[in-house]
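Hey, I'm writing a tutorial for new members on how sequence and structure tokens pair up, and I'd like a real worked example in the thread rather than a made-up one. If someone can provide the structure for the chain below, I'll link this post from the tutorial.
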Amino acid sequence: MVTWPAVLAAVAAALVVLLLVPGRPRLRDGPVRPMPDPAEGGTGWMMRFRPLWCLLAGMAGAVFVGGTAGPVAGVAAAGALWLVIGRAEPPSVRRRREQTRADLPHVVGLLASALRAGAATGEAVGVVCEALPGAAGDRLAPVAARLALGVDPIRVWEQLAADDALGPLGRALARAQATGAPVVRSVERLAEDLAAGARAEVEDRARAVGVKAALPLGLCLLPAFVLIGIVPLVAGMLGTVGL
């Protein structure tokens, strides 16, 4: 007798198979649109197949609970998964933020050099954006444009201070603009702090390599230790007991 949990399981298996089977390429008329770069954005594989994952979660919840409460549990599981996937951060956004944080010491160092050479703040930011294209430059480009349009610098830097990657630069420049402190000195001090932090992070990662390598090395040496040290000792003890 075929039960509805078995039917749901069969449907879920069929959906998974259809998801894994690659589709046939089809010829299209007109210009071919380039494939989007994953590093430039995108919703990620979880968001692309969001309805499918929610459907599978609903089926799993209904089958697991069973009975009259099964459909309610399935709807609750599907809704919960829908919210979780919707609030999850796309991998592309996380990669861009990490890249921006990695480029921040270079950005601040180059900005300090441009300011030291006598360039205005907005002009120096534009030079940095042109010299260092990438995630950090893309985030700084609107700042340079707003400064060129004559927007209040304090307001611009306060908004940049809310950025999750370039926040230290925004806070330092907003503080310098508000208090009248030399901008060049503030940026130079920030560049020194970021360089010291980057060196400390590299040293921490280097030390962590040895710690992380200890467990695999121990697992590799453990069989040899057992065969060379423990097994002969146990065999000798057993032979002595047998005598």
